[in-house]
Amino acid sequence: MGWRDRAAGHAILEEPDCAQLEGLPKSVAFQVRLFRTKERKIWFIGTRANLKKWEKNDDPFSEFAPAGNPRFVKQAAGTASSFCQSFDAIHDFARTLPDSQYAGYGPSKRVGELSLGLQLASILGTQVVSFVDDDDPTEAVLACVCEPGRVVRVRCEKAGFHLLFEKATTKASRMSNRGDVPPVRLLYPAGFSPPPPIDAGPVVDRLAAIPGVRTGRQPKGYFGWSKQLVSQELNLFVGEEIADPDTVVPGYAGMELLAQRAAGGKVKMFSV
User: Fold this and answer.
1) Does the residue 225 lie in any domain?
2) How many domains does the chain have?
3) Strand partners, 165
């Protein structure tokens, strides 16, 4: 079923030919659901890895995206090179931290939101936004827009850094402002020593040396709150505020189920 607080999936603004999704890797199970607002229609695609049967209450929007075919893993790395190199530099840094929650998501070649998102865009011939937000047990906060043949935009927060890729350039910044959080006095039990501060200076230097990377300030109006980044990116893509602040994806149980496939199976269509 996936982790309850995880939000993940893909969305498009053009009606898909669901039969074309047979071209996804056989290990990828998926559901296609239609969400309607007063102004438009949005098609959400939830993906799962190696799911052999969809149960009635399965949440299709709670799992990390499986990786796309190797061709699309390579194409994502090539078309978003500065982002992937930046992400991997931060991921390598995160792996040096003890008991780090930041090391479980990555490196970039394993990020399915990039490669499967790109494969979906290429199969369906339209732009796709792919996203994931998870903070327990692994921090994974990323949203990307792909079109056939290339990654167009990526936003990500990882290990205290914010990355924005667009127009072949990645802007990297430190997360230094978490918004108006009420002050809390921390009382440490006897014998407890707080962890030493982490020197991120070498990471900043390494990012600045990557071709196509600019270092800058934390984005105005972004504080790293739960679901904030992916909600902002989904709303920007759709052109309307549809993201639920708790779950990002609007209530999927009320959406129309159009098609689904279990891993290794055939696409099943549903009449609406």
Assistant:
1) yes
2) 1
3) 154, 170
What gap in Å lies between CA 271 and CA 38, rounded to an integer?
A: 22
Which pLDDT tens digit goes with each residue over 2-51?
A: 445 899 999 999 999 999 999 999 999 999 999 999 889 999 999 999 99
Residue 185 lies in a domain: no
Please give the Cα distance from 83 to 213 (Å, whole number): 8
Beta strand 150-158 with 140-147: parallel, antiparallel or unpaired? antiparallel
- The pTM of the full predicted model, rounded to 2 decimals, is 0.90
Q: Are 65 and 11 in contact (CB under 8 A)?
A: no
> Residue 26: which region, alpha, beta or left (left: phi > 0; alpha: psi -120 to 50)?
alpha
Single out the residue of 143, 147, 144 nearest to residue 122, CA to CA: 147
Contacts of 78 (CB under 8 A, 6+ apart): none
* Range(s) of the domain holding residue 68: 6-179+191-269
Strand partners, 51: none
HSE-up (13 A, CA, CB side) for residue 208: 10
3-state secondary structure 86-127: HHHHHHHHHCCCCCCCCCCCCCHHHCHHHHHHHHHHHHHCCC
Nearest-angstrom CA–CA distance, 71 and 265: 22
Which residue is associated with the tokens 């639920």? 244
